[in-house]
Write a structure and sequence with these properties.
Two copies of one chain form a homodimer. The first copy, chain A, has 372 residues and is α/β, with parallel strands linked by helices. In chain A, the strands form four sheets. Chain A has an eight-stranded parallel sheet. A three-stranded antiparallel sheet of chain A has the order 1-2-3. The interface between A and B is large, with 40 and 40 residues.
């Protein structure tokens, strides 16, 4: 259930509240990625203490390890990973297709050659046959098998199976993919509605970098019984192109339901997205940065391994209230990274995620006050 | 300050209490090793919650990274690493000499050839000149520089600089080393007493595998103003030899002060050592086992990666009260290790350390009841 609390008088930015069986998600909000059913290096009590309201887990990874049947036997993903707060899972499609095209970043940099590593064996109307990177097993992922897997996982919000066309695709093939992906989403929705399982399903808006197709996608999906709208597929090669595309399409995204921008979480994109009315964003960016020693602060990023931090006996961010900043100094964090101690990753991950939680709370406050 | 609370009527086992400026250590007790000023993968709040009373940090590592001057500038090691409870540091000698002989385990397995990797450049009456493994810098470690470093770190308990002769050493060289190590310990004590800094210093009993030398060492050191007695050097090639040596020497270790067995922490040795009157034991064994997926339980060790754990939706040890066993299952832990998630190391380290804390509390209770 989505409740719109306030729309800014200055922009499309809005404050809302999503209610799920496992609690509330205040929007706009950041969604941390715990691919394998854990946030890297943190136990669930620590994640809860940070105040993260929604966590994103990847069906593709959980299908291959430990297998969704194991998670179901555990009583579902919440119980398996000891999380009492909301979870969202994707369809597995993104990973299968991005493996086929050699990953999003390298595909963007390429001139469009497929870098199929052999993992995707066949794409048909039925779905995708691929080879597990773990044991070489052949796996058929279809709208129905993806939704069945997501039913076994039991996240609060699930995503229909879709095709991820690469950025480098000719318009004819894009249209073919576009039509098929909407047929797959409809099949996914049907599979979901046959067994709602107290889960919500967000549609995925497609259309690549064609504004007309994006508009059409919104219209097609708005007519189906989805509970929210995720924005997927390539939105362009640069942040600027992405912002232009979002600017063009957001007026067509239904306003009475929550929306989500898939896989985007850098601070500049978040800022732009919030002003365009995006409700939630998932990204592994803050946690990956933490592991690489890049810490977010109100005064800009800190590269913790820089020698200048060796003797700085002050918190990473003196204005931050996270447990890392309350208890440890830059000098100690610098030492942990230099000594290659995993404790550094733990403390930096806590800090960066707390930064995101606080940042989003600040955005909500600013919107409520019509300041953005 | 050491207070003897109870001596068992059945063995040399005893219960005591060591009071330090940062709190109490109940004995017998296990001392976890946080080489670089952190327990691997755990923050200090987690360590405190486990109930670990004493942590062991390595002067050698902290001298090289971040340097003891940095730690001093931070306000000492407690403040640097945000630990409010007792700490003990060693002299750095163990690491320098074990590098010279290629590590304790490999030296034991060898037939006595020195495996000097070039890091130890010169051993003289003054001390040891060695090369830093980090940057190749030449460093002179002497009784005086080791104690100065340990003064900068500021642990509650410190250790004199000693020479670690290898297991394979001829009696003449052992005696030479023996005499020098006791001269070094005396110089260390003098350096310590010139600036007590509210720290206690434990002597290190030497003598290798010669019972007469071990007895002499106890007698020499008992006549000096040490606050406690650590047992160092090679005690034999097997656990049985170690137990025989401890059996022979413990009657000569002063009873009115605490004693410590350096670097021994496997469960069988602990059990034997406690019966012989050892008060504390340090070892990285439980934390290293945790990282390798070997979990200690009241029913024996669990190899978490074994396939049989895939579907076991019960705690690692149903009788354990640690946060890992209260919140997670064998199946989830198995999954984390299979997925190579560091969170698995975090949860397993918590469990194994909690096991050690509980085990030592149980030993104390058994001794108080004269059951061992």
């Amino acid at each position: 259930m989505f409740e719109l609390i306030h729309s800014s008088k200055k922009s499309r930015a809005r404050v809302g509240r999503i209610t799920t069986p496992h609690g509330i998600i205040d929007t706009p909000n950041f969604v941390a990625v715990g691919t394998n059913g854990t946030l890297k290096a943190l136990d669930s009590a620590t994640v809860d203490a940070i105040g993260l309201q929604l966590m994103f887990c990847n069906t593709y990874h959980l299908m291959l390890q430990p297998g969704t049947a194991v998670v179901k036997a555990a009583g579902g993903l919440h119980k398996f990973m000891n999380r009492t707060k909301p979870l969202i899972t994707d369809s597995g499609g993104f990973q299968v297709f991005s493996l086929a095209y050699g990953g999003v970043a390298s595909e963007l940099k390429s001139s469009g050659q497929k870098k199929n590593d052999g993992s995707v064996l066949k794409i048909t109307e039925d779905g995708v046959l691929f080879r597990s990177y773990r044991d070489g097993e052949k796996i058929l992922l279809t709208p129905e098998t993806s939704i069945a897997a997501q039913k076994e996982l039991g996240a609060d919000i699930i995503i229909p199976f879709d095709e991820l066309p690469p950025y480098h695709i000719d318009p004819y093939k894009l249209k073919q993919s576009f039509d098929r992906t909407h047929r797959w989403e409809k099949r996914s929705l049907d599979a979901h509605l046959a067994n709602p399982n107290n889960q919500a399903m967000y549609a995925v808006i497609h259309g690549g970098i064609d504004p007309d197709l994006r508009k059409q996608s919104c219209q097609i999906l708005a007519n189906l019984a989805f509970d929210g709208f995720a924005i997927g597929g390539s939105l362009g090669k640069t942040r600027q192109q992405m912002i232009e595309m979002l600017t063009a399409m957001m007026p067509y995204v239904p306003q009475d339901k929550p929306n989500h921008l898939l896989g985007i979480g850098d601070l500049e994109s978040l800022d732009a997205g919030i002003r365009l009315g995006i409700d939630t964003f998932d990204s592994s960016h803050p946690t990956r940065c933490a592991r690489h020693g890049l810490l977010f602060t109100s005064r800009g990023n800190v590269k913790i391994e820089q020698g200048s931090n060796k003797n700085r006996f002050e918190p990473v961010d003196p204005s931050c209230t996270c447990s890392t900043c309350k208890n440890y100094t830059l000098a100690y964090m610098h030492h942990l990274y230099k000594a290659k101690e995993v404790t550094g990753h733990v403390l930096a991950t806590i800090h960066n995620l707390h930064f995101m939680v606080q940042l989003m709370a600040d955005y909500r406050q600013q919107i409520l006050e019509d300041r953005i």
